[in-house]
Design brief:
Elements lengths: L4 H22 L8 H16 L1 H11 L5 H54 L4
Helix pairs in contact: 1-2, 2-4, 3-4
Length: 125
């Protein structure tokens, strides 16, 4: 089996990206909820570059004359899906952060009221 130069580039780039993602996961720089999309995105070029003939057949079936455009379209869809997923995760974290800030403000207010009540009930020196 002979590899084309672009397939080797895709394989090397995917290997480097996968190694980087795995290292970030190992060091816990990528949280558990986020590692799977990044690992998938890192492996995606190797999968597409390694098995180009099935993708070329699918491109022909869709009527795409220049087969690599299908790969570009798939990469764009993957990027969109990943951005959408990460946006949902970040939005959830923003909501949780807001809720925690509100709870902290309520607790601080109650603590301030408690301290004022303690000062009032304490006998003067």
């Amino acid at each position: 089996m002979r590899f084309e130069p672009y397939q080797l580039v895709a394989l090397v780039a995917s290997t480097v990206a996968t190694a980087l993602v795995v290292e970030l996961i190992r060091r816990r720089r990528i949280q558990q909820v986020l590692w799977l999309p990044w690992l998938g995105a890192a492996l995606f070029p190797a999968v597409l570059g390694g098995w180009i003939h099935p993708w070329a057949a699918v491109a022909k079936w869709f009527g795409i004359v220049y087969e690599p455009l299908l790969l570009v379209a798939l990469a764009a869809l993957l990027s969109f899906a990943m951005l959408l997923y990460l946006t949902v995760v970040v939005s959830g974290l923003i909501q949780k952060n807001l809720r925690l800030a509100q709870e902290l403000a309520l607790l601080r207010s109650k603590l301030d009221e408690y301290e004022v009540g303690q000062r009032r009930s304490a006998p003067p020196p």
